[in-house]
Amino acid sequence: MDSNQKFALHEAAREGRNQVVESLLNANPKSAFVTDDDERLPIHWAAANNRLPVVELLVASKGFDPDVADGSGWTPLMIAASLKDAAGEAIIDLLLRKGADVSMKSNTGQNALHFASSKSNISIVRTLIANKCSARVKDKRGQLPLHRAAAVGSVPILKMLLEEGKSPVNATDGDGYTALHQAIAEGHGPAAILLLKSGADPLKRDNDDKLAIELVPDDKVMPSHMLGWFELTIFVIHTQVKQFILQTAEREGIELP
Questions:
Q1: Contacts of 108 (CB under 8 A, 6+ apart)
Q2: Digit-coded pLDDT (tens) for 5-25
Q3: What's CA 51's distance to the chain center, in Å?
Q4: H or E segment at 123?
Q5: Second-level CATH architecture of 1-107
Q6: Helix boundaries (H) for 16-121
Q7: What predicted TM-score, i.e. pTM, was given to this entire model?
Q8: What is the pLDDT of residues 47-71, one digit of tens each?
């Protein structure tokens, strides 16, 4: 049997060919549990490509496990949580109804909240927290979902993780970064201010002995005449971010070093 025949269900699931999926399942129900060369089952491909009708067919299979992991330790729930623009919301709702375990972690120690936070999927973060997915789990890099939300600058997700998820605001990752370090390093001024207002400690230093505010270049980094157009653009953006943080913090009565 060649690879195309062996993994026909995987291909049909990936491409969203519902009738083919149904026909293949009827002919051989066990094909739903065959791992392909990418160490994935058909359910993983269906979730990754947002094929809700196919997911509905696969979850109805006898012996279906909603927490089955691929070679990277990603469950269908994690995969759906990582889709852009919260596209996997309906799949997540279905998997949760089928008993998906929100506490599952990938091989790198991330839970579904890490993935949803990284993609700024606000509605999915809300759903996961409501279903007791922990915002206090660190991955193997020492990062919380809060670090991932800070890295993408999502103020709404930061608020949910802190207020509803009870995430610690000053937790550090393997580099000694707090979420505040992460937000400022990525140039997200409003996220930095939200964290400061939520109790982020501006005096915490990372493993390189850097304060969070020091991760944005100041006007002494390099004279503008030595910068090219691209470098000058980034330089101006970073300088504006620093000014925004300093000025807003002062208005809010937040003392920065």
A1: 72, 73, 139, 140, 141
A2: 789 999 999 999 999 999 999
A3: 20
A4: helix 122-130
A5: Alpha Horseshoe (1.25)
A6: 18-27, 42-48, 52-59, 76-81, 89-97, 112-118
A7: 0.87
A8: 999 999 999 999 999 999 999 999 9
